Amino acid sequence: MITRRLFAGGLASASFLALTSPARALPETACPAVRRMYLDSAFGQLHLRVATPDNSAGAAPPLVLLHQTALSGRMFDQFLPVMATDRIVIAVDTPGYGESDRPAERPTLAGYGDAMLDALVGKFGPKLDVLGYHTGAAIAADLASRRAEVDRVVLVSMPYFDETRRTDLLAQVGRPLSAEGEYSEDGSHLVSMWKGSFGSRADGQSLDDVARLVAEKQRAGIYGGWALHSALENDLAPTLSAIEEPVLVIAPHDGLQEQSRAAAALIPGAKIEELPEVAYGLFDAIPDRLAETVRAFLSR
């Protein structure tokens, strides 16, 4: 069952399912307000969360945040305003996730990225920095290898797998979609989803946080594995080797730590930041520290 496997632990060893959103109040210091907007894209309306500094004149290039499957830009709620003190920061809902329209057919990895970047450059361009997390990191890496509009790149928990592992993971997400068998009439599939989220929660995460997380996972329904499927179809080694822009790879102590290290080794001149003290939910658990690290890299 795709829904159960994706959202209840089937890919937990790859860190795709360790989705966390621990409770944390925003910092006491003044942060830009986050506003919502929609842009037209190749796949319909694209939903954004945007934080703009009080004085954005002469600010650094905008930073685009690309989320993990099968969540949305909501996963950056704590990080977004903290990061936006000296630049515009945009959290995008990947087409088919959150509040962005779903494509009629599953896009390729490049298709997802191009649809988002084309819309964003039209509004915020001509140069954008990009940060991607998990599936979002795969999209960010692909864009950096092909698109001149991408300036600097941050890859967090990079899903870089060899062919054997990709084949194994694709077997779990690559079969035809059907609502029949994906859901149980008594709702027991939600119990598996709950247990997967509750079991990987970060310190301080409340039951309400877990409930919101499980609700977010359900938004894409039986299409929730699409972006992950598109990422796994690609051998990312040539993509990573082709990146010429400055790259920072952040490797928290999660199920993709070794994969992140391997990816960094393939990218010419890439820098790597190890976070051994934090695993999942880092954008909620340490947004201030993470913003400091990312800002220092982007400002070089």
Automatic annotation (TrEMBL):
Heme keyword on record: no
Signal is among the record's keywords: yes
Tree of life domain: Bacteria
Residues covered by the AB hydrolase-1 domain: 63-291
Keywords (A to Z) from UniProt: Hydrolase, Signal
SUPFAM superfamilies: alpha/beta-Hydrolases (SSF53474)
Signal sequence range: 1-25
GO molecular function annotation: hydrolase activity
Pfam families: Abhydrolase_6 (PF12697)
Protein name as it appears in the record: Alpha/beta fold hydrolase
Species this chain originates from: Altererythrobacter arenosus
